[in-house]
UniProtKB/TrEMBL annotation:
Name assigned to this protein: histidine kinase
Taxonomic lineage from the root: Bacteria, Bacillati, Cyanobacteriota, Cyanophyceae, Nostocales
Entry-linked SUPFAM superfamilies: ATPase domain of HSP90 chaperone/DNA topoisomerase II/histidine kinase (SSF55874), Homodimeric domain of signal transducing histidine kinase (SSF47384)
Assigned keywords, A-Z: ATP-binding, Coiled coil, Kinase, Membrane, Nucleotide-binding, Phosphoprotein, Transferase, Transmembrane, Transmembrane helix, Two-component regulatory system
One Pfam family cited in the UniProt record for this chain: HATPase_c
């Protein structure tokens, strides 16, 4: 950002006509840069949140919530008075029962229309499909069609996968006295839009529009075309619904539609039953100069739809008859033109997006401004601001709706929540960065001292641990040695005694071949011949075991030699042998692999001045790591595959003499090589680092090789290095100076 402003400053300075102009430009750019740096949290969060919410909105995910919020505003709005210009004759279940058929006959329909005509209505709308004759009385009904110029029938012209086209009533269709009763249903099954013209380019209007237009024509008001092509009655323009109006996203905007402004829930118009009209049980002037609509109301006829009022807060959803949908559309046109009642208006998409951005900006600005107060107060302020802002959005949207404006509610509320979360997180992250920066400065000042202390501590702990362990092992070995020596000495005597006893019994058997029945039975019971044969073998086996214990004891004492204050002469081969003996249990074959072969290629090493305990620790670490590496390389291999290419650890020792500028240096070299997988260059570079390990959790600490290098290089003045390639195993090389 600083680079951008610097570049802009240079560009503006070039275009300035004088040095004074350049200074003014520089000052302005400097202020912009300063303010952008000061409010960078707001500049990051507000556009980001607005873009996110608008993106989600354009994908249609918020549309169902916004439509539900629109329905709630309809239900919360005060109920409007009944439009007395309309009378609806609803065909109820009792009417169908009375006629004993559906549809009822043309004769009964003709009688109904004649009854209505007696009251001199302004318009009669027949919201029933009568494209086919229903005898008796079809000729009589046709005569009524001919003699009733203010009668309008219906037809269905929009065809879809559920419904097909239905023609108009005869004669009415020829006279042009029909309208469409097609409706548009939203994806949630609710009718929120009214259809003025069902199909583009088709002049056939809907029943609601044709009845309203005829009514207005008798008032001397004719439809006109507005400059933008919209329908205009007098000073009222009905702009067509577009696919993204309000909170709709890619809605079906076919034909010419408007958003319905319902007067209230179902039965918001004057209803009378068909039987009451036929039997004259209505006032004589009920229909005079009014629009009379005839339509189905009975639930069995399934001509009803869900509206914003259907799903109440606690009531069971109630559907509105289709004839009332047409009445609502006609009433909306008439009340807008004659009474000044507002329709439902929407903002342009850009204004709706700005509305969302402003609320997100409000939260982001105040949230960033308050960033330096304590965390608890900041949280309380932000929650209070979020609550007040949400309530404000609700109140503004509701009041606007009372004046006919449908503005988004859920989108700005989501922007408020997202902006609150975003700016709060950004503030806390900024605080953490500041604290982290201060902490890094403090830590940097302590790093060198800490490293030295850590290395000294590790060395001290390891030295103390090895010293303690060495004393313990040496003590155990010493304690084992005494009873083992006692057992070994007595075994020699026991071997002679056993042999004497065997010889004596055999001699006795020669001279007394028949010792008696009781002795023979006892000899057979104890299997005297097997005992005499096996007893010397048992003594020999015990002798082998004692010898093995003596060897282990010697190896333990050799490995655990306590280090003195100064170096002592030491036979490195003995240390290697004792280490191998201690690790022999890990070298033996198991269920998944055969023995790991130890190949010794010892050279002629002299006695080396060193710290034996520490050097043994290094050798132990390297051989143990080699065993681990071989076990890892065996994963995925069968026993036979491993047996064909056996695991090997090759231990080589030699003396190397080098001459550098007349200075002769003699070193003892110990090389420990395995034929495992080897290491990559990345691992090889880190292998001696403190706490670095390639082993799984609980299998390695990352200290062994780090301490080993420290012992070899710092304590003994030598060198510990590693050579390895993937697939060719690894070789560790110890170089110890021979003084």
């Amino acid at each position: 950002m600083k680079f951008f402003y610097t570049k802009l400053l240079k560009h503006l300075e070039k275009g300035a006509s004088s040095s004074v102009g350049a200074r003014k430009v520089s000052k302005i750019v400097g202020k912009i840069a300063k303010n952008s740096q000061k409010w960078h949290g707001t500049l990051v969060i507000a556009p980001g949140v607005a873009g996110l919410i608008i993106g989600i909105r354009l994908l249609g995910f918020i549309q169902p919530l916004e439509l539900a919020a629109l329905d709630i505003r309809f239900r919360l709005r005060p109920a409007e008075p009944v439009d007395k210009r309309f009378v609806i004759i609803g065909i109820e279940e009792s009417d169908i029962t009375r006629f004993q058929q559906w549809p009822f006959s043309d004769k009964d329909l003709a009688r109904l229309i004649n009854k209505i005509k007696e009251q001199q209505p302004r318009i009669i709308g027949l919201d029933l499909y009568r494209n086919l004759p229903v005898e008796p009385g079809h000729a009589e009904l046709l005569e009524v069609y001919k003699t009733t110029p203010n009668l309008y029938g219906i037809q269905k012209i929009v065809e879809n996968g559920f419904n097909s086209k239905i023609g108009p009533p005869p004669i009415l269709g020829e006279k042009g006295q029909t309208g469409s009763n097609d409706v548009t249903v939203d994806i949630d099954g609710v009718v929120r839009r009214g259809v003025l013209f069902p199909e583009p380019g088709n002049p056939l209007p809907s029943l609601g529009l044709v009845t309203a237009g005829t009514y207005l024509e008798k008032e001397g008001i004719k439809p006109e075309a507005a400059p933008d092509g919209s329908i205009k009655f007098k000073n009222t323009v009905f702009r067509p619904f577009e696919a993204s109006d309000g909170s709709y996203i890619n809605a079906d905007a076919g034909g010419y539609q408007i958003i319905l402004n319902y007067r209230g829930q179902a039965k918001s118009f004057n209803y009378v039953s068909l039987i009451d009209v036929l039997e004259g049980r209505i006032p004589n002037d009920l229909m005079r100069d009014r629009i009379v609509l005839i339509g189905a109301k009975a639930a069995s006829l399934n001509d009803a739809f869900y509206t914003p009022y259907s799903r109440g807060f606690s009531s069971t959803p109630e559907r509105t008859p289709g004839v009332e949908i047409q009445a609502t559309l006609a009433s909306q046109v008439l009340s807008s033109v004659l009474d000044g009642r507002p329709s439902i208006y929407v903002w342009h998409d850009s204004l709706e997006h700005l509305w969302i951005f402003v609320w997100g900006l409000l939260i982001a600005t105040l949230g960033w401004k308050w960033r330096n107060i304590t965390a608890l107060h900041y949280l309380l302020r932000m929650l209070t601001l979020l609550l007040l802002s949400t309530v404000s959005v609700g109140i503004i949207s509701y009041v606007s709706f009372l004046f006919g404006w449908w503005i988004p509610v859920l989108s700005p509320v989501l922007a408020l929540i997202a902006s609150t979360t975003g700016i709060s997180s950004y503030v806390y992250i900024s605080r953490l960065r500041e604290l982290n920066s201060e902490l890094e400065k403090t830590v940097k000042n302590l790093e060198d001292a800490m490293d030295e202390l850590q290395q000294s501590q590790i060395q001290l702990i390891q030295s103390e641990k090895m010293s303690t362990l060495g004393q313990l092992v040496a003590g155990v070995a010493h304690e084992i040695n005494n009873p083992v020596g006692f057992i070994s000495g007595n075994l020699k005597c026991l071997e002679g005694y056993v042999q004497d006893l065997v010889n004596h019994i055999q001699l006795y058997h020669q001279h007394f071949p028949e010792p008696g029945e009781e002795i023979e039975e006892d000899a057979e019971t104890i299997d005297i011949e097997y005992v005499l044969e096996d007893m010397p073998k048992m003594v020999a086996s015990m002798h082998v075991g004692v010898t093995r214990i003596k060897e282990i004891s010697i190896s333990l004492r050799t490995f655990s030699r306590s280090d003195t204050a100064s170096k002592v002469a030491y036979n490195i081969h003995e240390g290697i042998d004792s280490t191998i003996l201690i690790l022999k249990h890990r070298l033996k074959a198991n269920s998944v692999r055969p023995d790991i072969q130890i190949i010794k290629e010892y050279g002629k090493l002299p006695m080396v001045n060193c710290y034996p305990g520490q050097l043994n620790q290094v050798i132990m670490n390297l051989i143990a790591n080699a065993i681990d590496a071989l076990d890892d390389s065996n994963e995925g291999k069968t026993f036979t595959e491993i047996e064909n290419n056996p695991n090997k650890i090759i231990i080589t020792t030699e003396v190397v003499t080098t001459v550098v500028t007349t200075v002769v240096t003699t070193q003892a070299i110990i090389k420990i090589k395995d034929n495992g997988r080897g290491m990559s260059d990345e691992v090889k570079q880190k292998v001696f680092e403190h706490l670095f390990t390639t082993k799984g959790v609980g299998k390695g600490t990352g200290l062994g090789l780090s301490i080993s290098r420290q012992i070899v290089e710092e304590t003994h003045g030598g060198k510990l290095s590693c050579a390895s390639e993937p697939g060719n195993g690894a070789e560790f090389r110890i170089e110890i100076p021979i003084s």
